[in-house]
Amino acid sequence: MPSRKAAREAGVNADQLEAAAVADGTVPLINALNDDVMGLDDLAERYGAARSPDGNSDWEVQDSAQERAIGDLQLELDRRRTLLGARYPYRVTDDGNALEYLPDACPSRVYEFCLALSTLHPGDRLHHKPEALAPRAFERLVGRLLAAYLGAGAEFYRLGWPPENDRPGTMRGALRELRQRTREWEITPPSGADAPADQGDGGIDLVVWRRFGSPVFDPTIDPPPDGGEATGDARLGMLVLLAQCACGDDWPGKRKDLCLTGFGRRWPGVISFAGQIRCMAIPHHVHHLAEWRDSCEAGILLDRVRVTWLAGSVLTPGDATDVATVLAPHLAALRAPPPEPKIGPGSGSQPAPRRVKGMSARRRRPPAPGAAAPRSRSGSTGSSPTPRTGTSPGTIGAEPPPEA
Predict the structure, then answer these.
(1) Are strands 98-101 and 90-92 parallel, antiparallel or unpaired?
(2) Pair 338, 125: CB distance under 8 Å
(3) Distance of alpha carbon 278 from alpha carbon 299, whole angstroms
(4) CB of 206 within 8 A of CB of 258?
(5) Is 376 exposed, middle or buried (0-12, 13-18, 19+ CB in 10 A)?
(6) Residue 309: pLDDT band by 50, 70, 90 thresholds?
(7) What pLDDT score was predicted for residue 69?
(8) What pLDDT, in 10s, does the model give residues 182-203?
(9) Neighbours of 17 (CB within 10 A)
(10) Sequence-ordered list of residues with C-beta below 8 angstroms from that of 199, at least 6 positions apart, any chain
(11) Top-confidence residue, 268 or 85
């Protein structure tokens, strides 16, 4: 197995190659090493191809490094194919020299959406519309998939900030709504001078649950059918998942952000009387087993492969088509070239880097876990303009961006 560093290099190369294949259909593997950001001149240093005692030539050193880089890339592509099987929307050609895009393998376009979201460059585009809407679409997508995975009758609620016409504009209102829908979440928010100024979600972007028995009708929300009595198992204790979603390269530093202790200090009470299961969902692909083990401290980890597997496992053909339709405008926005910077006296801007075909530009390599993180690209938490209230928590793409 490659080292963490080599696996990370191969993962970034694989992402770039997959994005280019979406645009061109088939791309040579060597293209992953021939872009304007990752030049061939530093391959020997990064892949440990040192000179022999006999003094091998520069081209021999470079050739050895290139072979190692392509070998690691092929291993990474094979690993993804092994994990997803027929749901992996790519294949290496028979001669082993190119990657071919297979659009019919993932009719929901979930893999392509996660790929575009995790390779967006520059990352701060996620803080501006229309790209800023994509992380919320990812959260709703994960909620829909997890609810379908739990089975008939399961529901989800997007609790993350900012609201997007899918929950009340305040955390107090959202918690009250959760209480009504689940019969749990017995939380009494402090009021008056004790009310928390911070309306944060404590890292809880999604709540997914499945109750036992028939659905419960709350007379304060829905009248019982046919005027009869409310039916169903309304007793406490059911399966509850709490999920955090992180879309930026700095996601390893957010593995502890879903902190129930901190949430309880701000919003005292009981979330679930039977306990809850934590999850973390990311559009990225985790490349190394050791990094995967480290990431499990966040709970059940759902990376790009697992999210795609869920989509292929729980969505009907009609559902997959619906998801693809909802994700289409977000995909178009994420794949669009970045806006041209303003160049002129006092603008402080520099020309945009040359684009890599099939991507908005080559993504920066993510830092190693534990290293100083770059500026966050995640849209999962943080400040936002004044939210708008509304309903429809079960839709994936509330307020989609305009067609690009």
Answers:
(1) antiparallel
(2) yes
(3) 5
(4) no
(5) buried
(6) very high
(7) 87
(8) 888 888 776 666 666 556 677 8
(9) 23
(10) 161, 170, 171
(11) 85
CA distances from 1 to 10, 85, 265, 365, 368 (A): 12, 20, 43, 20, 17
318 band by pLDDT with thresholds 50, 70 and 90:
very high
Main-chain phi, psi angles of 277, to 5 degrees: -110, 130
Q: What is the 3-state secondary structure (H, E, C) of 381-398?
A: CCCCCCCCCCCCCCCCCC
- How much is the pLDDT for 265? 76
Q: How far is Cα 57 from Cα 400, in angstroms, rounded to an integer?
A: 55
pLDDT for 368: 55
User: For 113-335, CATH number?
Assistant: 3.40.1350
Enumerate the β-bridge partners of residue 64: none
For residues 60-88, average pLDDT: 87
What does pTM read for this prediction?
0.76
Enumerate the domain spans of the chain: 4-105, 113-335
Using the structure block, give the residue that is written with the tokens 């929300």. 221
| 249-272 pLDDT, tens digit each | 888 888 888 878 778 777 888 888
* Nearest-angstrom CA–CA distance, 370 and 374: 12
Distance between CA atoms of residues 137 and 334, nearest Å: 12
State the Cα–Cα distance between residues 131 and 334, nearest whole angstrom.
Answer: 6
